[in-house]
Each structure stands twice: as C-alpha cells, then as structure tokens.
C-alpha cells in the first residue's frame, strides 16, 4: 500500500488528468505487487477516486490460484486488489472489460510499449487519450521503502555467499561452469530466487573479457580468475558483486 500511495501521489496524475495507469512491464508489475509473474500480466492502477481505487490485476488460469493465495496473505492490500481470471477462449475479454470502465485519459509505459502494441491498444480500446506516464513509476521506484532496503541487503548477503563459495571451491581441474553451479546452488539453498543474469566465472585468458561467457574450460595452476557474482534475486530485488573489482 505504501508503494501504491507513492505512485498515486505523483503530480502527473493531476497535471495530465490521468485516470489510471496501464502496466504490462514485468519490472513495474513486480514493483506494484511485490512478487514476480511467469506469464504476461496486465494491471490497471487507477487514481484513488476512480473505480473505487481498486487495482485490477488480470491473470491467466496457470497462475491465478497461486497469485490469489499470495495477495490474500496481506489483508490490507487484498482489500484494494481485484484479481481477475482471464477466461480461456475469450480473446476479447480484457478489451470488453476495459471499455466498460469508460476511461478518457490513461497513462501507459511509453518507454516499454512497442509501436505495434500501442497501435493495437488504440484500435481495440475506446479510450480517446493515451498519455506517456513511465516517469510516474520510475519516480516512485527511485526512493526505497524500509522493506525494500531490507530486501536489497538480503540480496547482497546472498551475493556474499556465492562469492565465498567460489573462493572455497576453487580447485585445479574444476571447470568454470562447475564453479558457477556451486555458487548458484549455495545461494539457492540460502533463499535466492535465482539469478537475473548468467553467473560469470572466467579463468586464464578468458578472464581478460569483461563479460566473459562461463565455459567448460578447466582451471589451471596459475590462472587468474574473475567472477561476476551474479546479480542475485531475493524477493524480487537484486545485487551484484565482481572480482577483481
């Protein structure tokens, strides 16, 4: 709710008379809801005085039950979220639902939406004005809540675990891929959701490449080894560490 309030307090809502935001960018959806989706998701985030302030989250059948369970764990947040199942075999369901709302001015993520997607929206939604509003979410994400700061610290701590694992596991004859796997395994055991980018372990001549591709090359005596650890995900936040830095 704190993050929703930050978004809704942005001056662009009143300056541009924006009634609601349309969100499909995965990072923005994760920011608003606090967890990641596997499938494509569509969110309508209205002003507090529009549509009862209810945030509409359109989810397909594959993720609906799990998302419902997660949202219901936060009693206050669940009161302002309308979770909507996208029925199979009804490709115009979202279109019809949105058009019934009667919006005149809607903000959208102009830094993410393709020209093709924008044209599709203009064709199927009866909304006169689409207003570029990426800055609303970006500005909200610039300042972190205490919960976000704690999540970032936990992500950094997981990176430390990965780093320590590589240092303690290095042996002549191990491959770069084996070292990367050891680090990722230990971070997973400690609570990581995975890596945002491929873990980089580069030895010998490979260490000269800033963004080397981790390979099946074996570590040899005297090799210089560089790590890019790893951008670690924890509760949808990431951290990165590299050596040499």
TrEMBL record:
Keywords for the protein's UniProt record, in alphabetical order: Manganese
- The residue ranges of the Peptidase M24 domain are 150-228
Domain Creatinase N-terminal stretches: 12-142
Q: Which InterPro entries match?
A: Creatin/AminoP/Spt16_N, Creatinase/aminopeptidase-like, Creatinase_N, Pept_M24, Peptidase_M24B
Q: Which PANTHER family match?
A: AMINOPEPTIDASE, DIPEPTIDASE YKVY-RELATED
Query: Could you identify this protein by its name?
Result: Peptidase M24 domain-containing protein
**Which organism does this sequence originate in?**
marine sediment metagenome
Q: Which lineage?
A: unclassified sequences, metagenomes, ecological metagenomes
């Amino acid at each position: 709710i704190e993050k929703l309030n930050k978004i809704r307090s942005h001056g662009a809502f009143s300056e541009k008379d924006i009634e609601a935001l349309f969100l499909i960018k995965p990072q923005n959806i994760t920011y608003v809801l606090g967890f990641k989706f596997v499938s494509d998701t569509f969110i309508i985030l209205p002003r507090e005085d529009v549509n009862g302030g209810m945030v509409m989250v359109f989810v397909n059948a594959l993720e609906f039950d799990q998302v419902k369970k997660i949202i219901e764990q936060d009693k206050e947040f669940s009161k302002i979220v309308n979770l909507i199942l996208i029925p199979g075999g009804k490709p115009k369901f979202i279109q019809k639902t949105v058009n019934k709302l009667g919006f005149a001015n809607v903000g959208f993520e102009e830094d993410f939406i393709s020209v093709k997607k924008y044209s599709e929206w203009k064709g199927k939604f009866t909304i006169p004005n689409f207003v570029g509003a990426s800055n609303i979410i970006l500005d909200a994400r610039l300042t972190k809540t205490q919960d976000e700061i704690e999540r970032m610290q936990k992500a950094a701590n997981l990176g430390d675990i990965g780093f320590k694992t590589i240092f303690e596991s290095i042996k002549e004859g191990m491959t770069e891929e084996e070292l990367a796997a050891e680090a990722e395994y230990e971070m997973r055991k400690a609570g990581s959701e995975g890596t945002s980018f491929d873990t980089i372990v580069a030895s010998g001549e490979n260490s000269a490449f800033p963004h080397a591709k981790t390979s099946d090359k074996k570590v040899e005596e005297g090799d210089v080894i560089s790590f890019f650890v790893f951008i670690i995900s924890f509760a949808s936040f990431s951290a990165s560490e590299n050596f040499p830095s």
